[in-house]
């Protein structure tokens, strides 16, 4: 009887396990099917939710990881896409899609050794893979192994004479050899033969930009807008170029259209303010911008103007601009961004208690709002409450590691508390984790200059430009440091490096002008964009 009872128990347990497995498989299958529907509709947020549900039920199905990787790619989450593909390769080491995607993502992320290794792995099995040849050739071009890059481009075009990647790679090699006009002619010929594409036009844009050829750059942007009407990044780059070429009115019109297309999008508003701060008030004409905003009557644009005035410490004007858009009673989702900015204006006007009370109300409404938490850090710092500011800044940096302002605020609090070792550590860690961010570089360099460590600042800037060779901001900061330290060899390295940077010729002229001024005994200020280094 005991044996019989035990057998029945084991059989029942086995049946339950089978039912549970079947249930998990069914849940995963249904979630994956819903993913397919959402993905086809381009509802990538819902698609990600569903495929993660499928993986929560069954995480050993390679195709589910492939689907997660595709949706991460579709939303620009490249690191997450790479991690999903890596998990797929663990389950299926021979999955060609995953290996090829990882090679391309490694190249995009600057991991050239990994990119080349993965490309070689695929080429060992598929020697005519144009995707992997392009990765391998691009790595060779980045390393300035121009004979190898040219040979790979020719090999690609021998396989497929109309291959776009091969033509672009060949043009890049010509440019790196110093034949920019030849590179432009190569791409214009490819467009005439095969038609326009985003990849060819973007490459042409870089080439025209290094020549400082505004009319051709403008025409190329117009063509890109036609191909990608919803691409906000392109429009911000065009607005930047318009400001740099003395056309602030056209830039404002473009930004106003962008705001209307993205109503209520705080990220777009923030990018407009960041753009205004980057190009400088001398190019923007803030008073002209204000008149323009007053004429348009566009609420998001007025809030963005308030943000600009706040960043320029014109607190009374910012308070007046923002006042109509803030919550006088309970905090509401539609006005929370204006509320945060208004608190900053109040703090700047010396009304710290009101500012703190408003920020506290915002955080009770949305305890995870990073802008509100940053504002409370600033209000507390201004009021001398460094202990409270430190608590909030540590939380802000922990929860929002990519937020430059939060990382800088934390380091600044350590400086104010007389803790230089902690300040140095906060800056160094932030720079390590935000190794591609020009604003973080500027803040770190400013800190090193304030503490009279110019050579160390130059080492940091040199490493940044090595890791981000197309960063115009990085080269600008490094060039200004070279000039301030009277390092002629360093200046020449910068002049050579900016040759391949979009807008590099304009930057070169600026640096040459400053070098001439220094030589004449009229040294230009090197206090950084914010003036914090002085």
Structure description:
This protein has 534 residues and is mostly helical. The protein has helices at residues 2-40, 44-57, 62-74, 78-91, 96-108, 112-125, 130-142, 146-159, 164-176, 180-194, 198-210, 214-227, 232-244, 248-261, 266-279, 281-284, 286-296, 299-311, 315-322, 336-348, 352-365, 370-382, 386-399, 404-416, 420-433, 438-450, 454-467, 472-484, 488-497, 504-519. Helix 22 (370-382) packs antiparallel against helix 23 (386-399). It is globular and about 70 Å long. The termini are far apart.
Strand count, sense and barrel status of the largest sheet are: none
Low-confidence stretches: 523-534
Number of helices: 30
Shape verdict: globular
Cα-to-Cα separation, first versus last residue: 91 Å
What is the N-to-C order of secondary-structure elements (H for helix, E for strand)?
HHHHHHHHHHHHHHHHHHHHHHHHHHHHHH
Mean pLDDT: 86
Quantity of strands, as a count: 0
Supply database-style keywords.
534 residues; 30 helices; 77% helix; globular; disordered C terminus
Summary of the model, kept short:
Helices cover 77% and strands 0% of the residues. It is mostly helical and 534 residues long.
Chain-wise SSE layout:
Elements: H1 2-40, H2 44-57, H3 62-74, H4 78-91, H5 96-108, H6 112-125, H7 130-142, H8 146-159, H9 164-176, H10 180-194, H11 198-210, H12 214-227, H13 232-244, H14 248-261, H15 266-279, H16 281-284, H17 286-296, H18 299-311, H19 315-322, H20 336-348, H21 352-365, H22 370-382, H23 386-399, H24 404-416, H25 420-433, H26 438-450, H27 454-467, H28 472-484, H29 488-497, H30 504-519
